[in-house]
Amino acid sequence: MNTRADNFLEMIRSSRRGKLKIYLGYCAGVGKTTQMLKEACRLRDIEHMDVVIGLLETHGRKETAECIGNLEMIPRREIVHRGIKITEMDVPAIIRRNPQVVLVDELAHTNAPGSRNAKRYQDVEDILDAGIHVISTLNVQHLESLYEIVEKSTGVKVKERIPDWVVTGADEVVNVDVSVADLQQRIRTGRVYPEERIDSALANFFKDSNLQQLRELTLRELAAQLDTRFREKTVPEGKEEAVSPDQVMVCMSSRSPNADALLRYASRIAGRLSRNWYVLYVQTSRESAVRIDAATQRHLNNTLELARQLGATIFTYKSDDIVQTILQFAKEHRVGHIIMGPSGRPVPFLQRLCGKRSLLERLTEQNYDFKIVVMEHQSPDHGSSLGLPA
Fold it and tell me: Alpha-carbon torsion 49, 53, 56, 58, what sign?
């Protein structure tokens, strides 16, 4: 623990823009906030640094509250929304106070309407831009690219999510891990939730199978990040293209029913391969601005915005020859993996007799040196829509 804190301390002293450190856990109750507070006290008391609390959620946990000690806490700002008073982190006050380090709990939080930013991670970006270092906390299920994986594993749809680049771009990520048995024992003894919520928590989200899945997911995520960071450090500057030529491309349709899952899958593939990834949308004459309907345009805009959040570089071309556009782009950008959804309705038998082929078949026939991954449509209705516990 001291070695990790020392590494972050060294980064702090050598930086102009703020550095970001994230305590990552697989679930509520593993001790992320407690570890964050302990490091803050060490930085203040031993390293004599100016450390404040920008936002902290104790959730009534005595153990967490005791770790606050006499750390300075920046008062929250009050927002009135539909007649209800809500408090959020006061970013301008933190920047005016200008500490060396600020603690910001629950990075994936969605701010109340009327806030400076829609999401707390955006608040953190503003603080980092002001040259203030940030230590924060996050549960792994809030990563955008893991949405379908978490839903399939636990049956829960995670409402609050953040782009993967927030974590992959962090200067340090520390896994806060306890065994599933230890976490369940913490819950039974009232260290995580009040007595009236214990039985419900253990019978539902905190059952053994869910926790095991999330814990394994967290360990895999950290291992992948460590591998990526190691490769980035060992590849000579300017030689990235020579070492990793097989970039990842998503072929995007304006009407894809499974676009979000497609993008999250591509994001994870690119991350695992340490490759750049692109989203290519080919606008045909049938999808020109004057012919495309408003609902389809909104769907397309939302899809491309998600792609940006996930870290893709987006290209839009106008062409009625989709296959040749895809092939030309793949050659020019050294694409080794093409990811796409099902290529629409099957070609009727009579048209096949006349030589017509589906987009996927035409791509496969002209494949020069890339892999094609086709993701089938998934029902959007499976799984619970409950938010995960804090």
Answer: positive
